[in-house]
Amino acid sequence: MINHLPKQKNRQIPITPIVTGSSEINSKENSKGGDSNEVITWQTQVADVITDIDQLLVILELTHIKSELYIPEGFGLRVPRGFVAKMKKGDANDPLLLQVLPNKLEQVKVSGYVADPLAENEQNPTQGLLHKYHSRVLVTVTGACAIHCRYCFRQHFDYQANLPKSEQLDVIKAYISQHPEVREVLLSGGDPLSVSNRRLFLWLEALEALPQISTIRIHTRLPIVIPERLDPELLSRLEASRCRIVMVVHTNHANEIDENTAQYLLQAKQKGITLLNQTVLLAGINDSVAVQVALNERLFAAGVLPYYLHLLDKVEGAAHFDMAKQQAVELYWQMLEQLPGYLVPKLVQELPNRPFKTPVDLYQH
């Protein structure tokens, strides 16, 4: 039985020790049984993600749990093989597996969980652009992701109506120019690193041409699930930017960061890129102090500073991942006791129509 809910308040979820090369997929033999000397690029890994539930269950020796799953009509299974390699075979409660496996609990309708939990459709002044925060705008570069996280707050987002076409680039630049208070642009999606370097560089060039823009922030999960995405061409281009480059990765559990992943992140840091992490609190996955301590310590060892610890956005289909705010506050106090201040992310909640992340009050619960 897959159990998404915590069995006890401070249970321990095993943390896999870092082992050099433990999950690196560097040959077709690893994924398809081909030549073991043929190097696999990030592009081929994206093209070779697992989308078939039966195939995933066979790989993980979990065919007996199929009756607890379902096949979503739209937001289906999508997970890179390298991420699967970090999962423990035979463990239906593996914390990485639970993030991507479609569970029948998603079909349960729960009051208060909606398709657009952050009311982003109301913050959309032009196609492909969200302007919610005073000094920042967000560009939905693409709707594509290498991995489908089952708690994703944009899983119902209308990307067809919000993806910027080539001619839209000038419209977005004009909008930014008309708003001199905007000093930072967030590249998001989808995952902006799922597009080609050529396409990404076009965005960088366009934004760098705006004198008011001092910082470009890239929100991405690719460096965690396919770390080879941080290829030399990309890192060199980011290093050469006249703007400060901030990369916010998304990691929920220490097992997501093996030695291979850590080395790629450290290379990015060495190029002068500011690396931050945001985590979503997920019931049954990272809702214990042991898991949070291990995660933030491992992030720091990989050159990444903890940034945000988010309460779950109440998106339709993800209620089984949610945890009570009181439980989150109690967990946070334990983190404060066990971690140095620079390794404690801000505990926040994003609420619709608020122009900032809302800090969770630690004293009112």
TrEMBL record:
Domain Radical SAM core: 131-346
Annotated keywords: 4Fe-4S, Iron, Iron-sulfur, Isomerase, Metal-binding, Pyridoxal phosphate, S-adenosyl-L-methionine
Record has Zinc as a keyword: no
Source domain of life: Bacteria
Catalytic activity, reaction form: L-lysine = D-beta-lysine
Protein name as it appears in the record: L-lysine 2,3-aminomutase
Cofactor dependence: [4Fe-4S] cluster; pyridoxal 5'-phosphate
Similarity comment text for this entry: Belongs to the radical SAM superfamily. KamA family.
Residues recorded as bearing N6-(pyridoxal phosphate)lysine in the entry: 357
Binding, [4Fe-4S] cluster: 145, 149, 152
An example Gene Ontology molecular-function term: 4 iron, 4 sulfur cluster binding
Originating gene: kamA
PROSITE patterns with a match to the protein in the record: RADICAL_SAM (PS51918)
The keyword Iron belongs to this UniProt entry's keyword annotation: yes
